[in-house]
Amino acid sequence: METSSKVSVIAGDIEIDLEGAPMEVEEQLALHRQDDTWTLMLDRLTQARAEAVQAAVSAAKEKGLPERGSAFRVLLETCSLERKPDQVLGAIHYLREVEGVQDSPPRIINQLFEDAKINPPGNLSLYLNRLRERNFLTIPEGKEDKNRFALLTEEGRTHLDKRSTA
Fold first, then answer.
1. Which end of the chain, N or C, is less surrounded by CB atoms within 10 Å?
2. Is residue 94 domain-resident?
3. Of 14-18, 85-89, 93-97, which has the strongest mean pLDDT?
4. Are residues 89 and 147 in the same domain?
5. Smallest Cα–Cα separation from 16: which of 99, 120, 5?
């Protein structure tokens, strides 16, 4: 009995449609990674996610919805951030990149969850410290090692990108 694998991904005008024996599909996929097709596709998906967040913010403004909570909820749903640590990482990303907030004490993060009608994380320091241990967050020099100034690392951004394409 032969096994067959299939990978099909479409992002805008880029289409990858591979089918065959698992080893053949893996080789073809490796070729796409080498010629930057895969990178271009991930860039398109990242752009689509950013556009979805912006569309949610615009729709919230037009409909008079509480912009902050609905936009954050859309980010979590778009990126499939269901686990609390991923949601906390998404909250830091949202506050820094969407709202431009650089100082986010626990009450700000908890309020973001409440605005989105999602249970707040509870022991926020625990989540932030674990995200730092996984190298998803970093504290800038001169900020006295305070979690309230946490920034996403490149690994943290990559983790969110992987979640949005999963």
1. N
2. yes
3. 85-89
4. yes
5. 5
- Assigned domain for 50 exists: no
Query: Do both 71 and 144 map to the same domain?
Result: yes
Residue 66 has pLDDT above 80, yes or no: no
Identify whether the C-beta of residue 11 lies closer than 8 Å to the C-beta of residue 44: yes
**Can you give the pTM of this predicted structure?**
0.61
CA distance 96 to 152: 9
What are the phi and psi torsion angles at 122 (to 5°)? 85, -110
17, containing H or E segment: strand 14-20
Residues 3 and 9: their CA atoms lie apart, in Å, by 20
- Angle value at C-alpha 52, between 130 and 39, nearest 5 degrees: 70
Structure token pair of residue 55: 């569309």
The pair of three-digit structure tokens given for residue 17, joined into one six-digit string: 């449609």
**Confidence class of residue 16 from pLDDT cuts 50, 70 and 90?**
confident
Longest dimension (CA), the chain: 62
